[in-house]
Amino acid sequence: MNPGTPGTAGGARTAGRFVVVPAAYVYLRRGDEVLLQLRRGTGYMDDHWAAAAAGHVERGETAYDAARREAAEELDVHDLGLDFVTTMHRTARAAPIDERVDFFFTARRWSGEPRVVEPDKCARIAWWPLDGLPDPTVPHERVVLESLREGGVTAYTTHGFADAATVPPAPPTDPKETP
Q: Which CATH code fits 18-156?
């Protein structure tokens, strides 16, 4: 919601409805490594490691389109072979923008050499092994990265609703099994 403008979000009339903010994240992968950025000057999680490319999904844009746009704008890479990883519904409870829906992607193929395009928002980028992630890493992103490392990413995850990240259990592989 825009401060001081009840019922609007980004200029769109919401008739007092609850609004979530969508974002897309791209993890470039190289073997068991992931490319991360050290955030700086953004006002959110500065001095934390995060996806090398991420940002809000714009009006009229799919999450896939946003992921490609952010990778081009922030890393100067193109032609990504995106693989969908998970959707995360998260809350920060008391934050001004309280709830978000995040779409996470990986890419193992792209054209161009990743580089820092926005030095006012990114101190540097570096490849990190999934089993040796840097500290600090943005907490909700760490949940996804650890799930990637363990190979157990589910299509839907939540974060912040029960004071800890929640990943629903994987469905039974045997249809006769019951939870």
A: 3.90.79.10
